[in-house]
Specification:
single chain; about 350 residues; binds copper (II) ion
Length: about 350
C-alpha cells in the first residue's frame, strides 16, 4: 500500500515537472534570441565612451599618419586604407558575456543553435533537476516521511527517464551534425588561398595565389594601438587582408610549436601545427575588422600575438595585393610559395 502510494506520488511529481519543463522551455526559447543583441546594444555605448573611441571621433586623419602602410593606390585608382574598427564589431566588448556577434554564415548558424536550442534545453534540464531536488527534500525527509518506502522498481518512471534523455539527445544531434558537416565543407575550386603560419610569437599571412608574398604581423604597443582606435593587445602592425563575401581557403601551419588561429566573431579556430597543413573555409559576410588571438599555449609571448583580419571589397583587396608587390588573377603564381614555412626543430 505504501509502495503504491509512493510511486503514485513520484509519478504525480514527474507529471508536474513535465509541465514545468514545458513552461520553462517556451519563454526561454523566445527570450534567448534577442538577448545577445540587447547585451551588445547596452554595452556598446559604454565602450564607445572610452578613450580609443573618443580619439576616433576626433579625426580619422591621424590614423593615416600613424599607420605605417597608408593609402595604397593601385593602377585602377582603387585604394586600400586600413579601416578603423567599429566599436562592438569583430572584437570583445568590456563587461559583456556570451558570444560576439557573428559575421560568417557558419557563425550565425552556430550561434542560432546555441541561442534557440542548447540554452533552452540546458535551462529546462537544470530547472527540472532543481525542482526534483526540492520536492525530494520537502516530501521525503525524515520528519515528513518517517517510514521510507521500499520501492525498488517503477516501470513507468524508468521508461520516462530513459526515453526523455534519448529524445533530447536526438533533437540536439540533428542540427549539431548538420552544423559539423557545414564546417567541414571543402572550399570551392578557385577559392583564394591564404596560408597562415604561426611563429613564436607573431603571425605570417602568405598569399600563394597572388605571387607568394608573406605579410608578417606583429603586436602593436598599447599606446600605438589606442591611437589607431584598436584595443590594447589586439592591434597588429599588419593585417590579414581578404576579400569580403566569398569563400576563402585558409591553410594553417606552425613554424616552431603549435599555435591556433582563432577569430571569435567569425566562428573560426584552426590549429597551426608544425609539419602539417590544416584547412578550412572562411567566409566573411561584410567588410570590417575582426580580431582574434593565438588560442594554443605556445610560449611566453603566447598572449601577445593578436590576429587582425580585415575584410574589404574585392577591388580594394586587389589594390592591397598590388601594393604588397603581389599579383592578381595569375594562376601561375602557385609555384612560388607552396610550403616553405615548416622549420622542424633543428
Ligand atoms: Cu601562438
Amino acid at each position: 500500500m505504501s509502495i503504491a502510494e509512493n510511486s503514485r506520488a513520484v509519478a504525480r511529481a514527474f507529471a508536474g515537472l513535465g509541465l514545468v519543463f514545458a513552461m520553462a522551455l517556451a519563454p526561454v526559447a523566445v527570450s534567448a534570441q534577442p538577448a545577445p543583441a540587447a547585451a551588445a546594444a547596452s554595452e556598446a555605448p559604454s565602450y564607445s565612451a572610452s578613450a580609443p573611441a573618443a580619439d576616433a571621433s576626433a579625426a580619422p586623419a591621424p590614423v593615416a599618419s600613424a599607420a605605417a602602410p597608408v593609402a595604397m593606390t593601385a593602377a585602377s585608382g582603387v585604394t586600400y586604407v586600413p579601416a578603423r574598427p567599429v566599436a562592438g564589431k569583430g572584437q570583445p566588448i568590456a563587461g559583456a558575456y556570451g558570444f560576439q556577434d557573428q559575421y560568417s554564415p557558419i557563425g550565425q548558424e552556430a550561434l542560432r543553435m546555441h541561442d534557440a536550442l542548447l540554452m533552452p534545453v540546458i535551462t529546462a534540464v537544470m530547472l527540472l533537476v532543481l525542482v526534483l531536488l526540492l520536492v525530494v527534500m520537502a516530501r521525503f525527509n525524515r520528519r515528513a516521511n518517517p517510514v521510507p518506502s521500499r520501492t525498488s522498481h517503477n516501470t513507468m518512471i524508468e521508461v520516462i527517464w530513459t526515453l526523455l534523455p534519448v529524445l533530447i539527445l536526438v533533437v540536439i544531434a540533428v542540427p549539431s551534425i548538420r552544423l559539423l558537416a557545414h564546417q567541414y565543407k571543402a572550399p570551392p575550386k578557385g577559392a583564394l588561398t591564404v596560408k597562415v603560419t604561426g611563429y613564436q610569437w607573431y603571425w605570417g599571412y602568405g598569399y600563394p595565389d597572388n605571387g607568394g608574398f608573406e605579410v608578417i604581423s606583429n603586436i602593436l604597443p598599447d599606446d600605438e594601438a589606442i591611437k589607431r582606435g584598436e584595443q590594447p593587445q589586439l592591434g597588429a602592425d599588419k593585417r590579414m587582408v581578404v576579400p569580403a563575401g566569398e569563400d576563402i581557403r585558409i591553410q594553417t601551419t606552425g613554424s616552431d610549436v603549435i599555435h591556433s588561429f582563432s577569430v571569435p566573431s567569425l566562428w573560426f579556430k584552426l590549429d597551426a601545427v608544425p609539419g602539417r597543413i590544416n584547412e578550412r573555409v572562411l567566409h566573411i559576410n561584410e567588410p570590417g575588422v575582426y580580431y582574434g588571438q593565438c588560442s594554443e599555449l605556445c610560449g611566453v609571448r603566447h598572449g601577445y600575438m593578436p590576429i587582425v583580419v580585415e575584410a574589404v571589397p574585392r577591388p580594394v583587396f586587389e589594390a592591397w595585393v598590388k601594393s604588397q608587390g603581389g599579383t592578381v588573377g595569375a594562376p601561375a603564381a602557385k609555384t612560388a610559395d607552396a610550403t616553405p614555412a615548416a622549420k622542424p626543430g633543428a
